[in-house]
Amino acid sequence: MRLWVGLVLVALGVAGIFDATGVVDAGPFIADWWPAAVVVLGLVAMAAQRRVSPGPVVITALGLVLLAGTLGWATGDLLLPTVFAAVGTAVLVGLRRHHGVRTPVAFFGGTTTRERSQHLRHADVSAVFGGATLDLREAHIDADADIDAFALFGGVDVLVPEGWRVSAGGLPFMGGIEDKTDNDRRLADDAPVLTVNGTALFGAVVVANRPHP
Domain residue spans in the chain? Predict the structure, then answer.
């Protein structure tokens, strides 16, 4: 995913240089079709995760909405409501997929969810212009589990107990994905593994053992 972001930025830069130097008139093409890169970014993220999760769905939907706007398929009055509808649909997709596991979602505010599942396998957490905390310190993992965390102009905190092995990664774009757990302590060879798949767009996904001040 980072490779795709890098390639897109290089392509836009080269096209801009050619346009500025008069080699080609790339301005109109870039102005009309740049959202297509956002659409492909979302599809690449879904392919990498091998599942349909809220983060990549939102990216793809926003790219399609922006592309419709640049190509004149949607009027300005329709653009913002369509964005909200796309984000809401993506969140509902995440809510439907997980058999009884609560999925904290924060819109323009904050929410905290304490998960006490004794056989945790998967959960989603999303924050859009807000903050969401998923507290897993009372949960149990049989062997491994994964979390899809999505932050758009917001922050997501995933709290885990000591003794879990954490693997955090994903797609940070003008944002960050950070593992602040106590990784310097020795973990048991059979320690449960939590994989955090983060998508941070102008936001942050943080995994820690305790809430930050």
Answer: 2-97, 105-208
